Every structure is written in C-alpha cells, then in structure tokens.
Amino acid sequence: MWSGRSSFTSLVVGVFVVYVVHTCWVMYGIVYTRPCTGDANCIQPYLALRPKLQLSVYTTTRSSLGAENNVDLVLNVEDFDVESKFERTVNVSVPRKTRNNGTLYAYIFLHHTGMLPWHDGKQVHLVSPLTTYMIPKPEEINLLMGETAVQPQIEAEKKPSSALDEPVSHWRPRLTLNVMVDDFVFDGSSLPADVHRYMKMIQLGKTVHYLPILFIDQLSNRVKDLMVINRSTTELPLTVCYDKISLGRLRFWIHMQDAVYSLQQFGFSEKDADEVKGIFVDTNLYFLALTFFVAAFHLLFDFLAFKNDISFWKKKKSMIGMSTKAVLWRCFSTVVIFLFLLDEQTSLLVLVPAGVGAAIELWKVKKALKMTVAWQGLRPVLQFGTYSESERKTEEYDTQAMKYLSYLLYPLCVGGAVYSLLNIRYKSWYSWLINSFVNGVYAFGFLFMLPQLFVNYKMKSVAHLPWKAFTYKAFNTFIDDVFAFIITMPTSHRLACFRDDVVFLVYLYQRWHILPHCGSVSGGGHSTASSGCRPGPQGLCVLQALSCG
C-alpha cells in the first residue's frame, strides 16, 4: 500500500515537472521571435524610415468611427517621438449619454504630422472604452448612529435600494499607450499570430513595410482607480501615459491580456480579473517569473497537503492525543474566514481555496466527533460514537487547557467587537458580526492551537499528528508570505499568513524537544513501533522526527 501511495505521489510530481518545463518552453516561444534572414518575404519596419508622426486622442460615444463628426479632440502631440516617455493629464467632457449610464470611447490615432488622421492612408489607430460597468460598493454606516461617510454631492443623488445591485458606468482615469520601437524584420511566411492582428502592412516600391505597432495596455486599468460617473458630472480627468515597448514584452503583454479576457468569458468578474492584472502590472518581469514558479509550487504543495490530510483523517479511528476542541476551532475559524472573504468580495484566487479548506474542516469535525446520520423516516438524527478510556484522558487535558484559555480569549474578542461597533462603519449588522468573528480569529486564533500543544506536552508524544500534511502546509505557509504582498486581500488576512509561520515553528520545536514515543500511537489509534525513530535527548534530528509522521 505504501508503494502505491509513493507511486501516485511520484506521478503527481512528474506531471508537475513536465508542466513547468512545458510552460517555460511556451514562454520562451513568446518572448523570442525568429527574424527574417533572407530578402524574400521579409517585412521591414516603417519606423526605420524615421517618419514625422503625430499622436491624436479623440473621444466619442460611438463604437465605430466613420468620419470626423461627433468627436472631441482631447490630446494632440505634434512631433511625436516614439522613444520619449511622457504622461499628461487632460480634462474630458462627459456627454449626457455617458452620464445617463452610457459608454464613452477613446480613439487613438498615430498619423503623419500636419494631416488629419482620416485623411492619412498610413495612419494606425485603436479604440478603447473609457468606461466600464460595475455594481457600486455598498454604503458603510455607523450601525448605532446611522451616520454615513458619503460625500454630500453623492448624497444628493441617492438612488432607490432596488438600483443598488444594478451595474452603473464607471470612469477609467488612465489610458496607457505603447509603440513597439524595435527595428525588427519579420518573416512574412511565419508571422506570430499575436502580433499579426496589430500589424498594418503597406507596399513601398518592391518592399513591404509594417506601420508602427500601436498597443493599448488594458492591464494598467485597475478597479481601485475607477470613478463612479454621476449625472451631475460634466468633466473627468484622464491621464494619458506613453512608453515604448520591446517586441518580446509586447507579445507577452498581448498573451496576458488575452488570458484576462478569457477569465472574464469564463464568468470571472472584473474585480476577480483585476487581481490577476495586479500580479502582472505591479511587478517587473523577473519578479513575475519568480511568482509563476512560486505559484506552481504552491499548487503542488496544496494538492499534496490535501491528499495527505484527507488520507490521515480517512484512516483515523481514534482521537487519542488529538485535541477535539482544536479541530472544532479550526473548522469554525475556517468557515468564518470563508464567509468574511465572501462578504469582502475577495478575489476567487483566495476565495476558492478557502471554500475547499472549509469543506475539508467540516468533514474532519464529523470524523473527530464520530458523528453519523441516521434517518427516522424523513427526519435525520445525529448519532455520536463512544470514547475509549485513553480518548477520555485526552479530552480531559483538552478541557483543562480550554478552561484557562477562555479567561483570556473571550474578553478580548468581546472587547474588540464592541470597539469596532462604536468606531468603525459597516455595510450591515451581518457585516459587523462576520468582521468581529474574523478579527477574533485572525488576532487570537493562534491561541486555540494551545490546547493541542498542551495535549502533546501532557502525553509526551507528537506521533499522533499528521506530520506529512503539516510539512506540506508549512512550505505553503512560507509561500503564502510571498503571495501576501502580491495578491490583494484584507490586511487581517495578510497578517494571518505570518502568524501561521509562528504556529508551525512552535509545532516543529515541540517535535524536536519532546521525547517522541514513536511506538505510542499511530494515525489510526493503534500501537506501532518504528525502527527509524528512537528515544533520545532534545537534540533529536528534525528530519528523523518527520520520518515518524
């Protein structure tokens, strides 16, 4: 049986290695483009001729532009230098149609100096919406006083409660533009599909040239920067940013934008997709590569931890040496954290693993309490199993630890809940209740690990713990420290990642310090003996200790 489990783990690790190698090969194919070596089928860059260019940005409520009618010029950059970076802020007039929950588009033209863009046959242009639709964030109020923190001009335009769940038009205050400046000669017979759709070719004599490749960086549009468009709004600021871009980075950015678009097509909201954008936009390429490898290993360790944890509890027949109250607390805290993340509309990248973890903890409680469901007709009846003498002894230590712990924990949690009710605004009483619970979990939750430590100390053994699952979770805990600075999440959840480091180190110290009775209790509650573990002083090798689990 052991060899079967080992073979399955080896298979998973092998698939993981193949996945990483394949991804690296794909990424190499994206950032590296083979240039044209001969004269036939070569496509030359038009920018190599050093033309005098002009950048013009227009706004209109129409998604397709046929002529120069009904457009507003908001930015005109004469003698545009593709090598020079700039950032300019302009005020954009908001049409009445846009104020009435409509859409406004930006048309970006790159054309020859001194010519109108629609009269220039060698112009390139792109269109980008300056607005998007989102459900506005609910108002937060002082639950006791009923006061809000809403600005007076917004209060004057209060909408009926039925309209609070309807998407409204939001302003994107940032427009980021790029032009590919590499003097790269493409092979016409093997044009990259990602860049091809941004290319416009012209014939000059016997040579085919591609016009400047203009690109709009949609990844820089973040949800946190969006502004609600009110009916009284007549002007809004727009920051136009320009920077040159290399061919490799352009191809990579195109693929990332396509990936974000695919997430939205699969049902991800703009807020969920925004968390993915933050990973790409707020980090440089080297750190992004590190993030990919960290995420891949996090996925592997998550799978192995879940596999070993479920396997451990599936075989467990006895609760000797295990703190039942610690299991109940982990279940309660995991469910509360999941509800809190759901209430905060956290990214699915954080929410889905939290939901899976909550479901597993509920299953553990069923195993720990020896709970079964019997049906009396159509009415379910919960039945609980009996405990052995050794299990009752463990429960006695568990109750003793919780008794002293409650003197400290309950006043702290109640005091924190009352303080937040008096000083912090919330969307509803439910939001306050969930936040109070989760703040207690995050701030003092590690205290509920003390009963298990107390049971370990009293029984002078840690062989009953799922050490393989603990080891994988430990690796993920340190990986979570990295993700805490990358993925957007509530501050309290971010701090809890570092708290878990301390919890694991305490368990590891106890494993190293306590005389390990490896022949005391197995995962199923039966007596075992392992030649690989031997009693010894507190300097017992940690690796030898981990092999007992």
UniProtKB/TrEMBL annotation:
Which transformation does this protein catalyse, written as a reaction? a 1,2-diacyl-sn-glycero-3-phospho-(1D-myo-inositol)(in) = a 1,2-diacyl-sn-glycero-3-phospho-(1D-myo-inositol)(out); 6-(alpha-D-glucosaminyl)-(1-octadecanoyl,2-(9Z)-octadecenoyl-sn-glycero-3-phospho)-1D-myo-inositol(in) = 6-(alpha-D-glucosaminyl)-(1-octadecanoyl,2-(9Z)-octadecenoyl-sn-glycero-3-phospho)-1D-myo-inositol(out); a 1,2-diacyl-sn-glycero-3-phosphocholine(in) = a 1,2-diacyl-sn-glycero-3-phosphocholine(out); a 6-(alpha-D-glucosaminyl)-1-(1,2-diacyl-sn-glycero-3-phospho)-1D-myo-inositol(in) = a 6-(alpha-D-glucosaminyl)-1-(1,2-diacyl-sn-glycero-3-phospho)-1D-myo-inositol(out)
Subcellular location as annotated: Membrane
The protein's matches in Pfam families, at most eight in alphabetical order, are given as: CLPTM1
Segments spanning the bilayer are 12-32, 285-306, 327-342, 348-365, 404-422, 428-450
Q: GO cellular-component terms in the record? A: endomembrane system; membrane
- Source domain of life: Eukaryota
What main location does UniProt list?
A: membrane
Q: State the UniProt keywords alphabetically.
A: Membrane, Transmembrane, Transmembrane helix
Q: According to Swiss-Prot or TrEMBL, what is its membrane topology? A: Multi-pass membrane protein
Please explain the role this protein plays, according to its UniProt record: Scramblase that mediates the translocation of glucosaminylphosphatidylinositol (alpha-D-GlcN-(1-6)-(1,2-diacyl-sn-glycero-3-phospho)-1D-myo-inositol, GlcN-PI) across the endoplasmic reticulum (ER) membrane, from the cytosolic leaflet to the luminal leaflet of the ER membrane, where it participates in the biosynthesis of glycosylphosphatidylinositol (GPI). GPI is a lipid glycoconjugate involved in post-translational modification of proteins.
**Family label:** Belongs to the CLPTM1 family.
This chain belongs to which protein, by name?
Lipid scramblase CLPTM1L
